[in-house]
Prior knowledge:
The protein folds into two domains: 3-175, 2-Layer Sandwich (Beta-Lactamase), CATH 3.30.450.40; 187-243, Arc Repressor Mutant, subunit A (Orthogonal Bundle), CATH 1.10.10. The chain has 254 residues and is an alpha+beta fold. A five-stranded antiparallel β-sheet has the order 2-1-5-4-3, with helices on both faces. It is 56% helix and 14% strand. A hairpin with a 5-residue loop joins strand 1 (48-54) and strand 2 (60-65).
Amino acid sequence: MSQVVRSREQLLSRAFVGLADTLVDDYDIIDLLDRLVGYSVELLAADAAGIMLVDSQRTLQVVASSHEDADVMELMQLEADQGPCVECFRTQAPVSVPDLIDAAGRWPVFAAAVESRGAYRSVHALPLRLRGEAIGAMNLFHRQPGTLPEADLVLGQALADVATIGILSERAARRGEVVTEQLQTALNNRVIIEQAKGVLAHRGNLSMNAAFDRLRRYARNRNALLSEVARQVVETDLASEVLATRVAPSNAVD
C-alpha cells in the first residue's frame, strides 16, 4: 500500500471518528461544521467548502466555510435565492455543476454574480438530511471545471450524513425536542465567532482566514468550545493570548 493511500485512509478514519464524537453531550456545532468542511477539502480535493443551515424561520444561513471566497459564494446564492446549494436543500438531492459558465439558464442571477467574481468554476452540493428532514447543504467548490468522481460524491455524502446525525441526535428526536433551537444556537455562535475573527484580524494585522486559524487552534489546544473562546476574545482581553498561538500549516485538520 502506498504512503499516499495509507495517509488518506488514516485521514478518512480520523474524519469519521472526529465527526462521530459529536454523539455526546455538550458538543460544539460550529466546531463540528468547521471540521466537516476541513475534512471535505482534504479528502475530496476541493479548493474550498461551505455549509448552510436553516434557522428557526426555515431560512438558510451560512454557518461554516473553509475560505472567505467560499463564504462569498454562499452569500451570493442566498442573495439571489438560487444556486446549487439552495436547490440541493430544497430538493434534498445532490446537485453537481461541472462548469458554472453553463449554469446561466438555470440560475441566471447567481451565474452572473459568479462570472463577475471569477473565483470558482465548478460546484457540487450535498444535502444535510436525515429521514426526509433536510437541515442544510454542503457545497464543494473547485477553481477548475470538471466532474467529481462518483466515489468522492458518495464519500462526501457519508461525511455530511454523519455530521447531520450529530446535529439531529436520536436522543433529541425521541424526546421530541425542537431541533431548530440547536440550529439557532449555531447561527448565534457564528455571529460571535465572526466578531472574534474581526478583533484578531485587526489587532494582529491578519487576514480573516489566518485569524480564524488562530482562534480554532487556541480552542482545540485547550479542549474548549470554539464559541466560548470567541466570546472571551470579544468580551475580555484574551485576544493577545490567542494571537500568540502557533498554527499548523494551511488546510491541516485536527
